[in-house]
Amino acid sequence: MIPLKKIYIIPTILLVFFSTIVNASVFPSNQLELINQPKSNITQELFDEIIDQFENTYKPIIKMKGGILKIQRMWSANEINAFAGRFYPLFSITIMGGLARHQFMTKDALTLSLCHEMGHLLGSAPTKKKIPNRWASVEGQADYFTTLKCARRIWEKDDNIQIIKEMEISPYIESACQNSFKVLNQIALCIRSTIASFHLSKIMEGIFNDGPINFDTPDQTIVAETLPNHPSSQCRLDTFLQGALCEIDYHDELSKNNPKKGACNLSTNHTWGIRPLCWYNPDQY
């Protein structure tokens, strides 16, 4: 019998290529590379450790869905990005070392980068409408999934109260998380997620040059149609924040057909945790 590894080696190579040409990435295609630029403190060893933890969490979940999770660790690549791809039964994430080495990258923000790519794979509706990426959740939904489902799943058993003691926390974020949650570790996890998302959004801000971004200056744009691609840096930060604030349990799965399921919505009387209108039009669903 031919080993499974050999059966899937060619599809995996094709999938890495495919995922880099479709728009299912944490950032838009960009020319930023780490040449004579300040770098983060993330080493290759830490890079692998973060990916190992992520794989250990999501491999069994993908297996239950009949799939195989493959994460391509491109540490030597200087590109600042990560990509997701589908070539059933393979669920692929490709993450570049340049992203990990970016000056604004942190250990937690790198986890959120992986979560965003998983959001394309498991984030469900709303999804992109055009071939070849109709399998992928839109960018805003992948961001929403990142803090609504993924970060909570990975970090729920951590001592988040102790972890955030070393972080600089804005009163705005602390108050918002306390309004959404009552259990101390859940409040701390909410704060941890939002701080990590700020670092990730700062990288986006550098690509788009559309700052400054801040949690208390939300994007006031109202879209006529749900955006398939990356919204503004501020809109993304708003989305990460709302995902972190939604009280719906991460075990409550999202739906491929109904974006209201497993999420917070105005129509279900939620005031916190709803998808921002700067990328999402609820009247379409």
Per DSSP, the total helix count is 10
Q: Largest sheet, described in full?
A: 3 strands, mixed
| Morphology | globular
Strand order, sheet with most strands = 1-3-2
Structural class estimated from helices and strands: mainly alpha
Quantity of strands, as a count: 3
Percentage of residues in DSSP E strands: 5-15%
**Would you identify the regions where 5 or more consecutive residues have pLDDT less than 50?**
1-10, 17-21
Helix content: 40-55%
Describe the structure.
- With 285 residues, the chain is mostly helical.
- The protein has one domain.
- Helices cover 45% and strands 7% of the residues.
- A 3-stranded mixed β-sheet has the order 1-3-2, sandwiched between helices.
- A hairpin with a 2-residue loop joins strand 2 and strand 3 (90-96).
- The protein is globular and about 45 Å long.
- The N and C termini lie far apart (47 Å).
- The model is unreliable at 1-10 and 17-21 (pLDDT under 50).
Describe what is shown at a glance.
It is built from ten helices and three strands, in the order αααβββααααααα. It is mainly α.
